[in-house]
Amino acid sequence: MSPVTSDLSIWIVILALGIGTFLIRWSFLATLGDRDLPPIVIRMLRYTAVAVLPALVAPLVMWPAATGGQPEPARLSAAAVTIAVGVLTKNVILSIVAGATVLFAMLYVLG
Amino acid sequence: MAPFPAPGPARGGGAGKAPPRAPAEIRALARSPRASFLHGMIATTPFLIVVVPFALLFGVMSQEAGMDLAQTMGFSILVFAGASQFTAVQLISDQAPALLVILSGLAVNLRMAMYSASLVPWLRGASAGKKVLIAYLLIDQSFALSLQHYERHPRLTLPQRLAYFFGSATLLCLPWSLATWAGATLGRAIPDDIALDFAMPITFLAMIAPMLRTPAHLAACGVAIVLALVFAGLPSGLGLMIAALAGMATGALVETVMERGKATQG
């Protein structure tokens, strides 16, 4: 298979990705309609956000692409502070600001 | 009053004894759909701090990968899913074949099937057209914010829930497109050493932390993190799915065990 170089092949990627992503998002909303999910599934779904988002982020925190996959103190500290402030204050804005501040301060200090 | 039973957290308590309502609850229930829409927008505002730079970065990156403005905007408008857009553009610059680019991008987005399923109990009864629109606008932030809102106020009506979601999604999707366009147009004027890569992790962590309110949530999160790291070497998206499903199962298990513990004590 050849790499994606022509305009046409880029558009094919965009359309396929767009349609596929839409179908993924629409899947259960469309098919389940007004039927009830089994209780065990509902119970599991309650933990969707707290399982998916940390799983998505964990490798990015441990092995950031920007450092060639090497663990890096500024990003690790920023992540830790963001979580700590979020858990303690339950305030999303405050924890974003705290995390970003630590990230930039540490990057600046570490050069 | 909701025309159908609110799904709410199934933690014993019957519908008979309504607990006293907090002021925030009373305010949320009293909102017109229009006010709920605005409320959703306002609750989403802080996320612009990260959504805008993230979209700018996407605009810059896709220009560098050789895409024209229409294609760059095509990604942000037709796909509208940040992580998969970055994955696709990265693979395109790495000269990967089209099929691999498409499959990797879709794998990154598979988590959204779980979002779709999670919203079903809250949004049932919505028209088919609205469900199409919800599906198009369903991203991490609009999902996490809305679900948090629905769980906090289980007695909201369907129009209030829909309006909150659409308010949140509007404030995410318009800036996403505009900032992509700005990034693609302004291009190299944006410095590339300001650690924008970390905007997404910080936002997501900030969204998750306040949700860790029970041992079951903590267990779900912990298992998901450990397995995501263990399976990080698997092809993109696969490790995430395994880790997420195991985390969700753990959360459900811990919840069940704790309920049994309570039942035997009482």
Task: Quickly describe the structure.
The complex is a heterodimer of chains A (111) and B (266). By secondary structure, chain A is mainly alpha-helical.
How would you characterize the overall build of this protein?
The longest helix of chain A is centred in the first third of the chain and has 26 residues. Chain A is built from 5 helices and no strands. Chain A has 2 domains: 35 residues; 75 residues, no CATH class. In chain A, helix 4 runs antiparallel to helix 5. Chain B is mainly alpha-helical and 266 residues long. Chain B has 2 domains: 179 residues, no CATH class; 55 residues. Helix content of chain B is 72%, strand content 0%. The N terminus of chain B is likely disordered.
What is the CA-CA span between the terminal residues of chain A? 43 Å
- H/E element order of chain A: HHHHH
In helices, the fraction of residues of chain B equals over 70%
| Total beta strands of chain B | 0
The secondary structure category of chain B is mainly alpha
Number of helices of chain A: 5
Topology:
The complex is a heterodimer of chains A (111) and B (266).
Chain A (H helix, E strand, L loop, with lengths): L6 H26 L6 H7 L2 H15 L10 H17 L2 H19 L1
Chain B lengths: L22 H8 L2 H12 L3 H17 L4 H11 L2 H12 L4 H12 L1 H13 L4 H10 L2 H13 L5 H29 L12 H10 L6 H16 L7 H28 L1
Helix pairs in contact in B: 2-10, 3-4, 3-5, 3-10, 3-11, 4-10, 5-6, 7-9, 9-10, 12-13
Question: What distinguishing features does this structure have?
Answer:
heterodimer; A: 111 residues; 2 domains; 5 helices; 0% strand; flat; B: 266 residues; mainly alpha; 72% helix; globular; disordered N terminus
